[in-house]
Each structure stands twice: as structure tokens, then as C-alpha cells.
Amino acid sequence: MDELKEIVETNNKQRYEFSEDITHIRARQGHSVYVDVELEEKLPPEVLYHGTGEQSLASILKQGINKGNRLYVHLSQTSETAVNVGRRHGKPIVLVIDAKKMAEDGHKFFLSRNGVWLTDYVDVIYIKEHSKLEEQRNSNI
């Protein structure tokens, strides 16, 4: 039990949580297997960010952002988080998503308990811009 408590408390992505009575542990958001994590439907901020690898950019700009083998597309509230996500997939690319327009057009958004925004699909028309990490660094100088 001590080891489980340590995992819940120290996981840098806050992926896990205990039930109120601390008799069960679960992921805060499912990735490829359905788990009822009691997602709350919410209106998103005006923009959200999606981090990916450079090798995926051409496909995304043609087909949009698909959930792949996950249950949802994962979006971040900050570009910094999206950069970190993108690094896991190679040379990072950050996509800026017009979440406000998506919501106005009827797309649903959910906010996981660890702050990840989730949606089913992001069509190309909602991708406002993209930038490579190097371009972001140059603009911050």
C-alpha cells in the first residue's frame, strides 16, 4: 500500500488516483482501454495546444488529429506542456487549436482530473498554426 501511495503522490503527470475510501486505484484518463474516469464535459479555453513529432505533421495537416488507438485526442492548456509531449514523439511540433470555434461548432470537450483536455477528433480547419521548437525559441529571443 505504501508503494501505491507513493506512485499516486509522486507521478509527475498525476495519472493515478485513489477512490475516496482508498480501496481502489485507477488511471485518471484512459488511453486505449475504456475506463469510466468520470470525465467532466466543459467548455474549453479559446485555444488549446497539441504536441506531436515532426514526422506526423504532414499527415495531421491533411487528415486532422485522430485519436489513433486512444480513446480521445489529448490537448494541453499550455504550449510548454505540448512541447514536452511532442518531444516524446521526436522533433517537437506544437499545433494551436481553435478550441472555441470547435466548441461553437458542437464538438465536445472533457477535462480530466489531471488537467488534460480531451476530444474525439480535431479537423484540419481548427488547426490555427503550428511551429517547430526551434521557431518557438527564436521568437522568444
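(ticket continues) Second input and output from the same batch:
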Amino acid sequence: MESLHAVYSTLMKDRTPGIRRGLMDVIDPRDRLIAIRGGRGVGKTRFLLDFCGEHYPEDPAALYVNISNLFLAREGLYSFIERFYKLGGKVLLLDQLHEYPEWDEEIRAAYDRFTSVQFVFTISSLFNVETSAYLQGVARVYDLNGLSFREFIELESGHHFPTFAFQQIIESHEEIAREIAEQVRPLAYIRNYLHYGYYPLYLEKKSPTDYLLRNISQTLDFDIPYLNQIDLKYLWKLKELLYMVAIERYHNVNISKLSHGVGISRATVLNYLHYLKDARLLTLLFDREDDIENGLKPNQFYIHNPNLLRTICLENASASAIRKSFFVSQVSAVARLNFAMNGDFLVDGIHEVSVHAEGDKVHPKDLTIQLVDMVERGSEKAIPLWLTGFLY
């Protein structure tokens, strides 16, 4: 146990300068069972350490442990927690908990038995804690997304900005854009954000393309097959499908075309699309508002964020695809997106939105809200697209 505390102490001291994520204000630190869920690379480990640093600074009763530690493999999760409790432990932060077999059953047993211990853990976005027989209605689940455009600008400029609801942006975008532009030139940051700004590990000066390619590969080779029991011989099909989706110009889902192109059945294509969505490599849009989407054929698909799109397509990603991927990555974190009949997207079942470049021919203005790329300030229903990066 002493060696684990030593590792934890070193991690806390060696953290690179970052940003206080907005999710920190959403979480109720009094909850005893907190799950932080997110895709690869969005900063779950950093957030876990920041959470402890903010709420339990230098508290000897708090401990961070990566679940891959071989000590846990030998002792077992429940037995380790029991020993932690007996030694006076009160706050246990477990990183990558989903990698431990039957983790939800053991963490629930420990939660029920050691009632004075708080558990905060990270898991992959692939896991639906809300439907777990052991954790449903017990664990509080929070989704950690990549950096918003707002957070990226704060990191780069040192200025601090509030978040705005989508309705606020619609109603007051001219005033909001003016106030932000008085402090920074937002369009001066957009190119770098689209290239590497969604993933906070850019702060460690790693090559964004190499880093994201490795993340994509690990997600496709290990994360998705581990949960969904995909035969190893089909992994290349999963990669081929992701590439076909990325280069699709019109974003419309044609299951027969994908099935023929990849050489797998229609049913398998549909399953794979949902796996890629759960891994936060894709965003799927449906024409209905049901909360349960598994098994449904989506109307459209988008690569989850522009950093991934640029990495997969390299120089072949179209400007239209990039701007729409940006919109999806920002808005889907806080609102429900559906397929729209008149515009490009339907936000929260209310707002039909078109995303386009300045000067593009678009749908009639009385039908949709116009989000315009590469304009600093808008007018009336023509809203700067970059403002959707200030939703979280």
C-alpha cells in the first residue's frame, strides 16, 4: 500500500499544467459512487487526479490506483478495497476500472459493505453503466468530453469565458460574440483547434496525428472487440468501415453500399456503426427521438470530432465535413441531435440548423437557423459557427 501511495504522490506532483474542466462544477462531490465516462484521450486520468487535488488535497486517506496495476491482479479488487478500508482509507480513485473482470459486481459489493468509503472511477465510453444490474440507480455517471473550443481558447490565451446555452446563443449571439471578441480573436484559434485541440494531451507536445492514430487503433483493436466479442479476423473490416464513413461526402447512411464495400452483412454493418458510436469515433443521427437507439438504422453519420476526421482522412477531409464535425462535437455534448428534414441538424427536437460557409446557397432562412463558418460576428439568424464551441 505504501508503494501505491508513493506513485499517487508522484503523479500529483508531476501533473502538467492544464485547465479546470467545466465538468468539475457539475459533479456533486458528496456522492459515494461516481463514474467518469469518456473516450480514449479526452483526459480521464488527468480529471481524476484534478478531482482529488481539488476536493482532497494532501489527504492521506485518499488514493489513486490504475486498475492495471499487477498488485490488483494478484489480490483482487474487493480484497484490495477491504484492505484500503481497514487502513483508514476514505476516498479511492480507480482509473480504467472497466479493464477489471466483473468490475461492476465487485465495486457494488464494496460500496454496500464499506459505507464510509467514496469511490470515484473512470470507465470507457463503451460501457453503459445506467443499465448495469449492479450499478443502475446507484452510481452517478458523468460524461467527460474532449476540450470544447472555449476550453481550448482559455488554455491558449489565459482568458476565462462563461458557457452559454444553445437558446442563449440563438437569442443573444451578437452581444455574446462582441463580448468575447473584445478579449480574443476567436478565429485566430480555430485552425489549431480543428487540427489537435479536442484532446488535452496536445499539452504534452506529442505529435497529434501519431497520438490519434494510436488511440484509434487501440479502440478498434482492443476496446470494441473486448466488449462486443468480435472475432479478430473481422477487426480489419471494422477499420475499413470507419474509413469508408470518414470519406463519405454526403454523410447519408447507405447500409447496402457499406455492406458491399466492406464485404460484411447489412446486420453486421449496423452493429459495427453502433459500436463505433459507443466508442465515440462516430456520431449517428436518427430521425426519431427515442432514447434507445441500439438496433435502429441511422439517417446520417459524422466522425465524432474534427481532430479524428483530419487524422483519418489526412488532407482529403472536405471543409464542409470538418465544419459539421466541429458542430457535432460541440453540440452533442450538451444537447440531443437528430436528423433534420429541412436543415442539417435538429437540436433538442426544436431548432433546425444549417451549417455552412459564408456565401453558400442554403435553405430558406425562415426554416432554419444559419450557423456560418469563419465569420467573427453574425446578424439576426446568421450565427457564427465558432460560438457553438462555448456550450460547455
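Agent notes: The radius of gyration is 22 Å. The first strand starts at residue 33 and ends at 38. Closing as not reproducible unless the customer responds.
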